[in-house]
């Protein structure tokens, strides 16, 4: 299979997953982060990064707000194409500015390396595979963080975003856990 073939397959998988996510997001009221809050309660005080939800992404902000009372919480800041993400400290009601791709970021950067990443995604599979937006930001970032120390990657998604088989590459970083509105999936590596 050529790189072009794989890119086309990933593009089709993303389109199908975006459609499923859009339907799922319309069916759920805000506040579906309950399982995420429960899991994060077991890691009180451990530094983590969430994300500012865009479009139809499931919203981690309630769980992030709870976690921020116990330790450092950050959000990703894109530095440029081909570069890993940096993570800037976030607290509820911190002043925000527009970041790339429509995600808000803290107005004043205060970077740190989180030990847990709550990862947005387009699709996931039952083995902890993740299909993202195609920029490779989280894959590069997780690879770098995991080279330094143990880093937990938690995918946060709607059940409807699960796919049977994802077109994955060797550079795609696996998730350690996926949390949905109804369940928590853990993967052993």
From TrEMBL:
Molecular-function annotations in GO: 5-formyltetrahydrofolate cyclo-ligase activity; ATP binding; metal ion binding
In the Enzyme Commission scheme, what number(s) does this protein have? 6.3.3.2
Mind telling me which InterPro entries this protein's record contains? Answer: FTHF_cligase (IPR002698), FTHF_cligase-like_sf (IPR024185), NagB/RpiA_transferase-like (IPR037171)
Q: Which GO terms describe its biological process?
A: folic acid-containing compound biosynthetic process; tetrahydrofolate interconversion
Name the protein family.
Belongs to the 5-formyltetrahydrofolate cyclo-ligase family.
Q: What NCBIfam families does the annotation carry? A: MTHFS_bact (TIGR02727)
Q: Indicate what this protein is called per its UniProt record.
A: 5-formyltetrahydrofolate cyclo-ligase
């Amino acid at each position: 299979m050529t790189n072009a073939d794989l890119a086309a397959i990933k593009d089709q998988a993303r389109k199908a997953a975006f459609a499923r996510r859009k339907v799922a997001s319309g069916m759920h009221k805000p506040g579906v982060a309950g399982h995420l809050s429960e899991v994060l309660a077991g890691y009180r005080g451990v530094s983590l990064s969430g994300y500012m939800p865009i479009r139809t992404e499931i919203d981690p902000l309630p769980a992030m707000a709870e976690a921020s009372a116990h330790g450092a919480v950050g959000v990703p800041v894109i530095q440029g194409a081909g570069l890993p993400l940096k993570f800037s400290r976030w607290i509820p009601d911190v002043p925000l500015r527009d970041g790339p791709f429509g995600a808000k970021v803290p107005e004043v950067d205060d970077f740190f390396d989180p030990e847990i990443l709550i990862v947005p995604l387009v699709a996931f599979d039952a083995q902890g595979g993740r299909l993202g937006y195609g920029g490779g930001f989280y894959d590069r970032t997780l690879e770098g963080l995991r080279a330094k120390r143990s880093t937990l990657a938690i995918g946060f998604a709607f059940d409807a975003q699960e796919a049977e088989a994802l077109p994955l590459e060797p550079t795609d970083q696996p998730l350690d856990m996926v949390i949905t509105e109804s369940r928590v999936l853990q993967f052993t590596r």
